[in-house]
């Protein structure tokens, strides 16, 4: 029997790397995709040596729209069990006020590039008639606020995209899992001062694996962010716009 | 993108001193170079698991590059046992993944929670130093990122001067990125241990002298508070790896005999979650402990002991350093040459016993020959390690011990040190000038520094 393979987009760091480890401990073969091939090779070797799984590196840049199909085409196979999309770019919100290139980079990475990648991969899984698509959105996508609304709006767009995709793929048997992480101890959080309730990537990856395993629709990780965001979203706009968030 | 850092109060394992440092956490090797080239900090030093005791991995108000996420295994040759890994890989990880395949560390300190990078930078030693020498003997080569941004492959054959400056060089020649090390083939996760209760220092040293060659590993717990005719009373623990066929059937069959079935924890199973009050380990409590511990031990031959218990008795309790309370402690470890070693040990143990200070964990061992590492610590003779709680008057007291050590031709282990002075340091390390010349060449812009380096003026020409 062929070992089920999981494709991880954005596997090099943070939650993506932790998820690669998580799936490897559950004996999945892996395709590690991202921009830095040298780093991906190192991670692939590491996962093979630790967990005795096959892992290979594939260069994919979600910002390179033209090359997307050919890059992702190299990731397809009959043993593909599912896709985890972990690409994300918080960027510099201050800089993005005046620098439209930075603004575009934030929007394109988190929405356009991510959605296009999934759009391509969804066809393969739909044709296969089984599998999963798990994508990291963000709690920031639940409500726009001044400190990160470019990132938040792109993630909000991705959340909506995933909703539609879930609806489309439901009858084909392909699960679509939307993950909304809160603060996680990755590059996005490190060096940003003291933040409350920061979770480790390993803990978050464990929860995401469970969500995939049980075919959940939308999960907040850690779980209590669902309550926090419920409260945040219940504040009337007239009041919310006055807050410094 | 500018590398992000966080300002954090850091300390070594002794929790003395504590200093504010600017901590970076690169996730890719290229980010290490980018950080060093960023101009954000006046200087940088590498940090792994923070198990050096003093200020070696601190850089007050400057950059500390944490290798926590640069911890990938890169390749392993199952025929030869050569492991290539990144510098942030811990010895615990190596044991966890490779002991069940029949490979163990060639040299290990008393904790497995140190990184490969730290092991090279401190040129660590273990209970087998009298036979196998220090860690660098098993380092085939490494990749060193120098402050100019160049990545150099160094081995005893290529760039040997940089290799031997980096080994024991306390991170001051560059950032270690990856290394190839030779693991040791073992047949089981167990050690046959012979215990011997020595009545005093003479007895301990004579027994070690006579029997060490028959053992791969030899170390003694020593009661540093015993005086008079009991001075230096010890429990010698000497062992050899057990062959798989010597194990009881239940261990052989379950796989535990070779560390399988998750027999090797990646994290300590227990956690000391709060500080003891400072001063709880005092003269009275430690004397009581030492007396009991010594009384309970028996001379016994061929005891089958798991490697965890034999090599890493304290690793079972995470944050055991909290026993010393908030004020922390200093581990004072010295090496003394063969010729004057006995007299030196006697002088220092006597001074220690008379000081009224407590030393909870004291360890005595014989060293084999020193290696070529320019700042490597071991020298043929003896080594003594004392854990001393930080308390009023500790620094002048240790300076007094420094003087005694120096008078007997000995030296202080930099990985443990927190209080040594530059003059004494220079006198203890005769190859310092050679180190400085190479260091200066590698780091013309003085981008590498640490609190230890500044305190001891290691890089000053």
Structure, explained:
The complex is a heterodimer of chains A (245) and B (461). Chain A is 47% helix and 16% strand. Chain A has 245 residues and is an alpha/beta fold. Chain A has a single domain (5-240), classed as NAD(P)-binding Rossmann-like Domain (Rossmann fold). With 461 residues, chain B is an alpha+beta fold. Chain B has a domain at 73-186: Uridine Diphospho-n-acetylenolpyruvylglucosamine Reductase, domain 3. Helices cover 27% and strands 25% of the residues of chain B. In chain B, the strands form 5 sheets. In chain B, strands 16-12-14-13-19-20-18-21 form an 8-stranded antiparallel sheet. In chain B, strands 5-6-10-8-9 form a 5-stranded antiparallel sheet. In chain B, strands 1-2-4-3 form a 4-stranded mixed sheet, covered by helices on one side. In chain B, β8 and β9 (151-154) form a beta hairpin. The relative contact order of chain B is 0.15. The chains are: A alpha/beta (245), B alpha+beta (461). The A-B interface holds A 12-14, 17, 36, 38-39, 42-43, 45-46, 49-50, 187, 190-193 and B 4-6, 25, 27-30, 69, 72-76, 86, 97.
Q: Quick gist of this model?
A:
The complex is a heterodimer of chains A (245) and B (461). Chain A has 245 residues and is an alpha/beta fold. Chain A contains 9 helices and 7 strands, in the order βαβαβαβααβαβαβαα.
Key terms for this structure?
heterodimer; A: 245 residues; alpha/beta; Rossmann fold; 9 helices; 47% helix; globular; B: 461 residues; alpha+beta; Uridine Diphospho-n-acetylenolpyruvylglucosamine Reductase, domain 3; eight-stranded antiparallel sheet; five-stranded antiparallel sheet
């Amino acid at each position: 029997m062929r070992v089920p393979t999981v494709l991880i987009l954005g596997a090099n760091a943070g939650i993506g790397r932790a998820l690669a480890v998580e799936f490897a401990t559950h004996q999945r073969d892996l395709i590690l995709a991202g921009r830095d091939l040298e780093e991906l090779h190192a991670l692939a070797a590491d996962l093979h040596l630790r967990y005795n799984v096959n892992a290979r590196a594939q260069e994919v840049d979600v910002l390179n729209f033209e090359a997307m199909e050919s890059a992702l085409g190299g990731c397809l196979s009959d043993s593909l069990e599912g896709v985890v999309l972990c690409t994300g770019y918080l960027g510099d919100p201050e800089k993005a006020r005046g620098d439209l290139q930075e603004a575009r980079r934030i929007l394109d990475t988190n929405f356009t590039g991510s959605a296009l990648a999934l759009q391509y991969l969804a066809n393969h899984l739909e044709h296969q008639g089984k599998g999963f698509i798990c994508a990291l959105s963000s709690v920031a996508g639940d409500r726009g606020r001044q400190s990160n609304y470019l990132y938040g709006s792109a993630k909000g767009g991705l959340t909506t995209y995933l909703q539609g995709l879930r609806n489309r793929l439901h009858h084909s048997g392909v699960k679509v899992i939307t993950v909304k992480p809160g603060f996680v101890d990755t590059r996005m959080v490190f060096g940003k001062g003291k933040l409350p309730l920061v979770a480790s990537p390993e803990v978050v990856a464990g929860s995401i694996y469970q969500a995939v395993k049980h075919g959940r629709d939308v999960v907040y990780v850690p779980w209590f962010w669902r309550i926090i965001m419920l409260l945040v979203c219940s504040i009337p706009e007239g009041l919310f716009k006055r807050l410094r968030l | 993108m500018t590398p992000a850092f966080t300002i954090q109060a850091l300390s070594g394992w002794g929790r003395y001193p504590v200093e504010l440092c600017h901590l970076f956490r690169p996730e890719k090797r290229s980010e290490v170079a980018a950080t060093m080239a960023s101009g954000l900090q006046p200087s940088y030093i590498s940090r792994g698991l923070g198990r050096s005791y003093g200020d070696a991995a601190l850089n007050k108000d400057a950059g500390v590059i944490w290798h926590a996420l640069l911890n990938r295994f890169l390749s392993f040759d199952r025929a030869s046992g050569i492991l290539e890994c990144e510098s942030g890989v811990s010895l615990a990880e190596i044991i966890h993944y490779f002991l069940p395949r029949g490979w163990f560390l060639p040299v290990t300190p008393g904790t497995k929670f140190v990184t490969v990078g730290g092991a090279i930078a401190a040129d660590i030693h273990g209970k087998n130093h009298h036979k196998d020498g220090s860690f660098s003997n098993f380092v085939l080569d490494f990749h060193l990122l120098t402050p100019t941004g160049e990545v150099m492959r160094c081995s005893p054959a290529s760039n040997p001067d940089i290799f031997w400056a980096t080994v024991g060089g306390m991170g001051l020649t560059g950032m270690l990125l990856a290394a190839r090390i030779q693991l040791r083939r073992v047949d089981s996760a167990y050690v046959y241990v012979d215990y011997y209760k020595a009545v005093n220092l003479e007895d301990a040293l004579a027994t070690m002298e006579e029997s060490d060659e028959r053992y791969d590993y030899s170390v003694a717990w020593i009661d540093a508070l015993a005086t008079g005719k009991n001075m230096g009373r010890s429990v010698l623990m000497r062992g050899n790896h057990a062959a798989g066929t010597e194990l009881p059937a239940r261990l052989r069959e379950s796989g535990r005999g070779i560390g399988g079935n998750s027999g090797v924890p990646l994290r300590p199973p227990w956690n000391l979650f709060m500080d003891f009050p400072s001063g709880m380990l005092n003269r009275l409590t430690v004397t009581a402990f030492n007396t009991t511990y010594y009384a309970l031990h028996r001379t016994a031959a061929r005891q089958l002991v798991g490697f965890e218990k034999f090599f890493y008795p304290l690793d079972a309790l995470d944050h055991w350093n909290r026993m010393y309370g908030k004020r922390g402690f200093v581990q004072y470890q010295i090496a003394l040459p063969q010729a004057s070693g006995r007299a030196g040990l006697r002088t220092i143990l006597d001074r220690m016993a008379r000081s009224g200070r407590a030393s909870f964990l004291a360890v005595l061992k014989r060293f084999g020959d020193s290696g070529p590492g320019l700042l490597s610590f071991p020298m043929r003779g003896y080594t003594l390690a004392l854990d001393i709680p930080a308390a009023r008057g500790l620094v002048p007291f240790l300076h007094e011990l420094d003087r005694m050590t120096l008078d007997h031709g000995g030296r202080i282990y930099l990985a443990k040190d927190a209080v040594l002075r530059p003059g004494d340091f220079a006198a203890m390390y005769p190859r310092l000038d050679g180190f400085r010349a190479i260091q200066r060449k590698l780091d013309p812009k003085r981008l590498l520094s640490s609190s230890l380096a500044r305190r001891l003026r290691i890089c000053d020409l």
